[in-house]
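Replying to the earlier thread about multi-chain prediction with a worked example.

Input:
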Amino acid sequence: MPVAEPIIVARDLQKSYGSLRAVDGVSFEVAAGEVFGILGPNGAGKTTTLEMIEGMRPIDGGSATVDGLDVASDPRAVKARIGIQLQSSAFFDELNLTELLVLFGHLYHATVDPAQLLADVELSEKARSQVRTLSGGQKQRFSIAAALVNDPRVLFLDEPTTGLDPQARRHLWGVIKGLRERGHTVVLTSHYMEEAEYLCDRVAIMDGGRIVALDSPDALIGSLLGRGFTKERVERLANLEDVFIDLTGHELRED
Amino acid sequence: MARRFEIFWHLFVASGKMFIRDRTAVFFSFFLPLVIMLIFGVLNFGEAAELDVGLADEARNSSSEALQSGLGQTSGLVIHSGSLTDELAALAEGDRAAVLRIPAEWELVPPGSSGYQPLSAYTSQALAGEGQTAVLLVNAVVAQALVSVDGGSPEPLVVVEEVAGRNLGYIDFLVPGILGLTVMQLGVFSVAFGFVQLKQTGTLRRLFATPTSPSYFLAAQVSSRLVIALIQVLILLGVGLLFGVQLVGSVAVVLALAVLGSVVFLGMGFGVAGWAKNENQAAPVANLISLPMMFLSGSFFPREAMPEFLQEVTRFLPLTYLNDALRAVINDGAGLDVIGTDVIGLAIWGVITFVIATRLFRWE
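Result:
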């Protein structure tokens, strides 16, 4: 499905580990400025797909371009234009958040404003803290700040909310919405459907290394209903998470 | 080029900062050698001990006084006067090497003369060696005194000419050994653990996500450790000087040796860190490398004290080369001509280490 002004073009991406075809012919395009979600169960090939496009993992077959640059032939140039949040990234223990952001900026030849970056992810009060003292949600937010030091064209977030409590998750959603409003293109993976529905303009659903559906959340739901799907139980106007948030509030619990 | 250097420089500064803030690393590679040196320095092992000799003067006449002053002037002897009972008790305690009894009515006359009485000396079985030496010294003093009386002149039997020379104590042996040891520990340990941890936690992987090659980080780590090693060597040398180490050779040569040694041992550290998947793999290998050398390369005691076959084997250890060279420079002011073999030995180790480390290195 071609899009106007594609900033990412993936064509028939393939990756095998031994006899396992982890990614088996994945093609999609991402438009500049959209939030694009890659969904799927564990082992569907989401992370591998992402890492091939990021230049973090060699591409076995097919091709990927980011901002017009071929990933396989110039991964460094691609890395210079993107921001990457790894699924489990760690940072140097002995440096504080400000020092880390400045150091990462140097790795891109970028002069950074650590105070602004930390403010963007609501970590201003932790500027002099070390990463190990942060809560799970704060770590993920810092990880996003570190991915923003080069003011990237595209931001890749691999399962940014996995392991977070509902409050921290919703808080991070707010941060990601803010990134979109500031014009960043965001590609994220998730296995939370309500997250994808809330954040993503379009989603690709992967299973067994292939994309099994790709469209906007509304269109995908519409087509399912169009095929005559009905839920066994009529959807209520609230779910248990709404109850949880109502009882425990939106306030973050991380200090 | 300038850009590349800039990246390297920022990583170098960050590496140094991280090292200084890592308390474990600082303790083991920095304070431990200092503490070892302080302990050995204060104990001052190997200092030529003086012999304590008890003197029970029961004569109390001019002869006994003359003898007493002769003994008092003898270097290496410390005379304690007291009653025979007290001095023998001190001997039994191990506080005296020997006790000399000057019997009542004793006169300084040659054997065979009228009024001649032998002096009696007591030694302890527990300190037989020191007792023997003390008695020999006492004998010599008495003989000297007798000659003076005979000829009426105080001419010595043996004329002693003092030649200017360095009195090398244990501290002079120890300090170069501690320097070598520190360079080894810093090289092997400051890297092996920290780097494996970075690998294990995914910190290195995060560096891969940037356009900067992680080899910059590797270079920055090596260089920062090299600079830290030099600073440490200077500090330890300074403390050594406070303890009275005689620094004969040039500091520049000492630092050059420290750089060469650091390159070898950092290579080993990165070899271990590059090969190991986690700290549990790194720790035993790092210890396997450093522990034998710690004790067999002549850091704390001379290798000459070891069995001959062990001396032959340990001759070729990198720390042996480093210690020998440092000792030759610090103690004897040796130049490159003397330490050439050691330098070549270290250089060969450097090449071997580099080849092995690059073969074993895995980023992930």
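The radius of gyration of chain A is 19 Å.

Feel free to reuse this layout for your own posts.
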